[in-house]
Amino acid sequence: MDLNKIAFRISVIALFTLSPLANAQQIPQATAPQPEQLQVRIARIEQGLLLPVIQKGQANPKMTLAARMAYHKVPAVSIALVDDGKIAWVKGYGVLDSATHQAATPTTLFQAGSISKPITALATLALVQQGKLSLQQDINQQLRSWQLPDNDLQAVNKVNLRQLLNHSAGINVHGFYGYAKNDKIPSLVQILDGLPPANSAPIRVEKIPGTIWQYSGGGYSMIQQLISDVSQQPFETFIQHTVFAPLKMQHSLFDLNMPDAKRAQNAVAHNNTGTAIAGKWQRYPESAAAGLWTTASDLALVLINVQQSITGHSDLILNRATTTDMLTRGLGEYGLGFFVEDLPTTTSFSHGGGTTGFRSQLYGYTTTGQGVVIMTNSDNGTDLIKEILPAIAAEYHWPETHIIEK
Question: Which tens digits make up the pLDDT trace of 65-112?
Fold first, then answer.
């Protein structure tokens, strides 16, 4: 499941002062405002949610975050705000489980869904940068333990890694359904071939590669197999060493069986009525496409690293040239792992994520040092995210008067 493109417009920016709020996690930074000032900014957002679209000439009434969480039946929200290239604040709202009422915190884990794809792209491009993978070579010449079946659509154009990262390889299977607590989990090869107990179709070429943009979680499952083949280690282990450890993402993991130490910190999935789903959450062995568990603050570290890399201030994972390639549009409005929007003064990069009972959004700019990660534990989370984003954009004077969320 993936978030669709959503457009919203910020119509009026009105700032007002409220009393400071407690429980916001403050990350020290050299240019941070005084704590009282920071709390006032947070309060303005919490009291100033905006409808994403209004009719011209009409006022856009402000709404409270608490009221809109109740209205949309979203039990928990976590927000990590990036400003001036640093994490300005992180805060959790609501409860992990509507039945137990355990409070959400800044370290609450959520399923990130398709935000797994930018993480996968970072790791994949690290292998490209090291000369261990090619973006242009026939993918079957790089895969070792599985091969993409040939067909007439590949007579001229063979599938390559650049196309897979860009969703332009003509691969089917948009997204994945997940597996319930007691379901048998298929191997990755069973998923690729659509064999029981896999609950998705075989991953195959259904359009001429390189000719059309077609979002494909199936293509990222092929990349998952490729990373394991080339690195000669489990995908999850390679991501840990290549992305999580360098960025100090201490709360992130790809794990079908949530460790006991993490289980007490993770949010429970809720349907559109606000009820926890049976088994608390689905499991996604399609790790590269949808299997990430993480926190808003960990994903904010990814956002900041991309900003630092593209401006030449970090080569912790990717150098400037590779990051520039990553954030250059191919087919569609997509680079290599991120949606990309070229703006008059900067470029935005973003990705949404949705699994059963979870919706999230990462949104950042390449040159302004601004961005945000919002994570929710509800099928209705997208509607709430659409109302939070304009309030943040207004408070922090983001470059756009309208924002395209993907």
Answer: 999 999 999 999 999 999 999 999 999 999 999 999 999 999 999 999
**What residue ranges define each of the domains in the chain, with the CATH number in brackets?**
6-405 (3.40.710.10)
Residue 194 CB-density burial (10 A; 0-12 exposed, 13-18 middle, 19+ buried): middle
Count of alpha carbons within 13 Å of 405, Cβ hemisphere only? 29
Quote the pLDDT of residue 261: 76
The alpha carbon of 107 is separated from its chain's Cα centroid by a whole number of angstroms, namely 17
In tens, the pLDDT along 195-229 reads 999 999 999 999 999 999 999 999 999 999 999 99
